[in-house]
Amino acid sequence: MFSAARQSVLRQARTQLRRTQPTTIPQSSALSRLLSTLAVLEQREGKLNVSSLAAVTAGGKLGGSVIGFVAGSGGKAVAEEAAKVQGLEKIIYVDNAAYDKGLPENYAPLLVENIKKGGFTHILAGHSAFGKNLMPRIAALLDSQQISDIIAIEGEDTFVRPIYAGNAIMTVQSTDNTKIITVRGTAFPPPATEGGSATVEEGVDPKAECPTEWVSENLAKSDRPDLGSAEKVVSGGRGLKSKEEFDRLMPPLADALGAAIGASRAAVDSGFADNSLQVGQTGKNVAPQLYLCAGISGAIQHLAGMKDSKVIAAINKDPDAPIFQVADVGLVGDLFDKVPELTEKLKSQ
Amino acid sequence: MSGLRILVPIKRVIDYAVKPRVNRAQTAVETASVKHSMNPFDELSIEEAVRLRERKVPVSEILAWTAGPAKAQDILRTAMAMGADRSIHVVTDEKDASSQLEPLGVAKLLQQVVQSEKTDLVILGKQSIDDDACQTGQMLAGLLGWSQATQASKVDVEGDMVTVTREVDGGVETLKAKLPMVITTDLRLNEPRYASLPNIMKAKKKPLEKKTLKDYEGDFSARLKTVKVTEPPPRKGGVKVEDVDGMISKLKELGAL
């Protein structure tokens, strides 16, 4: 009797989910069991992009099953690699070189087909260049209002995200049936990439036409840790005065610490450093153990990208620079003296 | 082909230099008597459209469009002073919850604008600095089934082919697509011009058409409910050290080294 009642609740809930008309899903504990998340994973030249696994961590917090998705040439090999990631129940892969570059024009229809087939309630991806480019297109195709760059999950429909360059934190509740979400990598540390045992399954491939042609790419080569996921970051700003000084002072300091190099917008705009190194509202978000910056005043747009760092250290000659209001350790002084001295002393330890 | 018809959607936001404050009721950010201006990325979009014309790409019209409160008219005048030919203002009521637009709603409105204005190219900012969503351009491209190139740092138009260099994690990539398409702008695309006084005067005479949401078909109501808006947790005030040795020992104490 009791179980029959429960089953009918389940059936009712399922029917509601299957409807294509937007309906409000009732808050019900029976429903949480039907919750299933698709984590869209990135791959690059047949290698799984570990930083995209934040979507798996976030999916795990939702409570339902988490299924991974990869597409591209050698999709099966990447899927087998991803199958070892802890927290994934299954990997859906599509093996087709047309998806190698993650172009949303054909990747979005591909995902929509697989989402419809799998009946997923939540679609998650990292808030990376790939996720930012692709996910809103999927959201539009599914008539769902995406929730971008979440930093916390409060319930299956309630999410927390920063707005106004991180100067305010907003909690939103979604009324959409399928929730399309991008997650901030630094807020959801990636799971272990060994020890998992997900099953691997081939997905559907609608083979949509792609009207856009990928021509070329030019990626900055670096042996240093990746800026987005580094434990330590050293960052330089306008105070470095020139590209020559930036290149003379920052890399040795980064090497002494085993850190990634970042830069403020002022340094990037002035040509001291590559665009991809920009930390801030419109650049990368970082949250390392140590963020050590020199010659950065601390404009709100820059703070938006680094103020979740565990320890912030700053060197600046202006004692009133706003960076000192957030820095745990501040040193007032000329960076052209202090940075080389710091580099030497760190090396000799 | 006659000249390109370019649509540039823009948004009025709290000025980027203002530090936003959360209101007492924790329902939103305080916007009353706070300086507003055009979203910085949208200035880049207008600038790029005007530069295409200046680079002798045949452009028959640059249309600036916004949805927002009565005051949003100011940013349309700015856009026209920068070189847009005319503009459309969908006037919304700030106090009316049913006219609070989200990116999906804006994309659906723009889909209809594109169709009625026979637009060939839509240039939007990559994100608005208030909501930080990064969605509208991609959603619009999806609804129209057009090519998209987001976070553009270089745009070349030759005939009906467009080559766009876009900023991605770790560097740049180049895409090529046929018109019509949707492009979103990144910071490095250009340096927006200041509107000169004569152009500001001229912009006052350019056509500005007022509409309401009722002039468009469909449901644009919000799908997300704001539960609350709070201040981020403040960082604890740190210490200043005298010298490099002091910095190293303090960092060790904090466990960062």
Automatic annotation (TrEMBL), chain A:
CDD domains: ETF_alpha (cd01715). Signal peptide: none annotated. Pfam families: ETF, ETF_alpha. Binds 1 FAD per dimer. One of its GO terms (cellular component) is mitochondrial matrix. Keywords: Electron transport, FAD, Flavoprotein, Mitochondrion, Transport. It comes from the Eukaryota. Residues 37-218 form the Electron transfer flavoprotein alpha/beta-subunit N-terminal domain. It is found in: Mitochondrion matrix. FAD binds at residues 238, 264-265, 278-282, 295-302, 316. GO terms for biological process: fatty acid beta-oxidation using acyl-CoA dehydrogenase. Gene3D superfamilies: HUPs, TPP-binding domain. Its cofactor is FAD. GO terms for molecular function: electron transfer activity; flavin adenine dinucleotide binding. The keyword Flavoprotein applies. Belongs to the ETF alpha-subunit/FixB family. Heterodimer of an alpha and a beta subunit. The electron transfer flavoprotein serves as a specific electron acceptor for several dehydrogenases, including five acyl-CoA dehydrogenases, glutaryl-CoA and sarcosine dehydrogenase. It transfers the electrons to the main mitochondrial respiratory chain via ETF-ubiquinone oxidoreductase (ETF dehydrogenase). This is Probable electron transfer flavoprotein subunit alpha. It comes from Clohesyomyces aquaticus. The lineage of its organism: Eukaryota, Fungi, Dikarya, Ascomycota, Pezizomycotina.
From TrEMBL, chain B:
SMART domains: ETF. Its cofactor is FAD; AMP. It is found in: Mitochondrion matrix. Residues 26-220 form the Electron transfer flavoprotein alpha/beta-subunit N-terminal domain. It holds the Pfam family ETF. Binds 1 FAD per dimer. The keyword Electron transport applies. Keywords: Electron transport, Mitochondrion, Transport. SUPFAM superfamilies: Adenine nucleotide alpha hydrolases-like (SSF52402). Its main location: mitochondrion. GO terms for cellular component: mitochondrial matrix. InterPro entries: ET-Flavoprotein_bsu_CS, ETF_a/b_N, ETF_b, ETF_beta_N, Rossmann-like_a/b/a_fold. It comes from the Eukaryota. One of its GO terms (molecular function) is electron transfer activity. GO terms for biological process: amino acid catabolic process; fatty acid beta-oxidation using acyl-CoA dehydrogenase. The electron transfer flavoprotein serves as a specific electron acceptor for several dehydrogenases, including five acyl-CoA dehydrogenases, glutaryl-CoA and sarcosine dehydrogenase. It transfers the electrons to the main mitochondrial respiratory chain via ETF-ubiquinone oxidoreductase (ETF dehydrogenase). Heterodimer of an alpha and a beta subunit. Belongs to the ETF beta-subunit/FixA family. This is Probable electron transfer flavoprotein subunit beta. It comes from Clohesyomyces aquaticus.
